[in-house]
Amino acid sequence: MLHAALTRSPHAHAAILGVDTATALASPGVVDVLTAADLPGQLCHGPIRADRPVLAAGVVRHVGEPVAAVLATDPLSSTRAAAAVGARYRTLPEVHWFRGAQADPLHPDGNLVREVRVRRGQWPADPGLVVEGAYNTHGWVPRQEPFGTDGAPAVPALIEAQPTDDGVQISAPRRWHPTDRDQLAQCLGLTPRQIELTSTGGTDHSTDLGGAVVAATFARRNHRPVCLMVGPPMFGQGGGPVIALRYRHHARPDGTLVAVHAEIDLESGPYAGLAEALVAEFCAVGTGPYRVPAVDLRVRALRSTTPPPMLEPGLAAAAVAFAVEAQLDRLADLISFEQGREAARFPAARRAVRQRNLLGLDDPLPTGQILLEDSPVAALLTALDATALPERPDLGDDHAWGVGIGAGILPFGLGEAVQVSVRAEIRVGDGKPVVACPAAEGDEHLEAAAVGVVEQALGAATAFAATGAPAGGGSAASIGPSVQAALDALTRPARERIGTRAGMSAELLRVVDGRVRSFDAVVDVPLAEESAGDPDRATGEYATPATEMLDEDGQGDAFSGFGHAAARATVLMSAGGDVEIVQVVVAADCGRVLDPE
């Protein structure tokens, strides 16, 4: 096993005047050195727009950007040799996202990654009650597990590459994206079929494939297995991106929303990553799970010389909830003051504003998309009441006690015409059932979801079989239906025979706990007795529903589905500013529950 290390830029923005690798090549134990000129295929990659270089060429755009890679016989030698690479720079002005498109160009494509203006509905002549607010998620992390910047996780991540007869096998502790294999093939000068991807665990959503390309290039050039350790980050910030949100809500005196104007700016770092997809998310859920007749919403993603932040699907929904829920609280307080009552400091009045404005069956999102189902948020808010509020301690006037509620809506998948197909196979033999689903491999939660679907149906302990060739794009929302499709194919012969005898369609029969049952319980027979002699394996496939790009007015059915959640938090704060989270209660629209525990 050979060991690789990266030489990183100490500058946020600089022209590369030259990279001298002679000293590094002469260092003890060094086997090979790579610069951008040595890469075998396309220099840049990206999940939507290929704008991020594997190794910087001509210019560096953030602190810590790799400019060279060194391969040696041991980790210490590779690290020392990477430090010996002589890179000369001419510093350039840093680019700050808040200057927008007017800042000095950071990239040939310009500083504006994407801008969408959503316009829908008739703006009211009477502004009514007006609530304005500005919100910022700087340094805010959208999930509890620690991580660093995109490409520099908070804990060390080991990337391994093994040369094969005609390609390469790459292992990494990450969740592969649907387009990762195609991107790697372009950067390595191979076909996608020549690349085998394996996940060694973890749920990293990073879009940075540079480390994988470097390790694979070294492995193929030197015909030896290679490992590359990435992180913890030596440079730059960690956590999520900067998101600036400015909202103005217009409402009637009773709190009914009539219009929302909003401006949302997302800092994408120097490269696009998933920023374009997040812009579409912001457009779809920019007003939260609430009915708004008129919307004027502008969403932008802007480049900067900040190290690439971790942009994840679902990030927009969390940021919108942060801002919109604060706006509704302020609206509830304003109504209370207008009516001469005490400010709404507890859930009742603030909840009433939310209940009044929840999306109905025919109410469109800002993008004009209809949910085609009743919003479950009302039921979720009611579910929060099942947990009693904690008792308020008697700590005197130097402590403040607060209770807040909020609701959110989350789009599924990348959307905007990005379609993912997931395949699954189920085998039943003499032993316990086995399910294989490449899209779930390497993620224990997704593997458990695949197993849970089979166990609920067959009523028997089920094993998950790794294929060794995981596919990208898996999520519980796509893996579950693909496994269910395989189950339907496996049990169809038995269901058709039972349906013929009972005079009903096989589609009206379902398999639960190893039995075939009708919806009215008239049919209830053991599956094992009816399926004797049937094929012992079947495959199923699920493709996400077709979606469309947003048009020039930000209108279109951009996402295949939406999830909902509501939360209640109880917080205690001292006069000195110390905050104690006393209780958090969450209710979510989970879809099919596989494990109630």
Structure report:
The chain folds into 3 domains: 2-92 and 156-230, Aldehyde oxidase/xanthine dehydrogenase, a/b hammerhead (Aldehyde Oxidoreductase, domain 3); 97-144 and 238-338, 2-Layer Sandwich (Aldehyde Oxidoreductase, domain 4), CATH 3.30.365; 421-543, Aldehyde Oxidoreductase, domain 4, CATH 3.30.365.10. Helices cover 23% and strands 29% of the residues. It contains 11 helices and 27 strands. A 7-stranded mixed β-sheet has the order 3-7-1-14-11-12-13, with helices on both faces. Strands 9-17-16-15-10 form a 5-stranded mixed β-sheet, covered by helices on one side. A 4-stranded mixed β-sheet has the order 21-20-19-25. The longest helix is centred in the C-terminal third of the chain and has 27 residues, at 476-502. The chain is globular, with a radius of gyration of 27 Å. The two termini are 43 Å apart.
Sum up the structure in keywords.
597 residues, alpha+beta, Aldehyde Oxidoreductase, domain 3, Aldehyde Oxidoreductase, domain 4, 7-stranded mixed β-sheet, 5-stranded mixed β-sheet, 27 strands, 29% strand
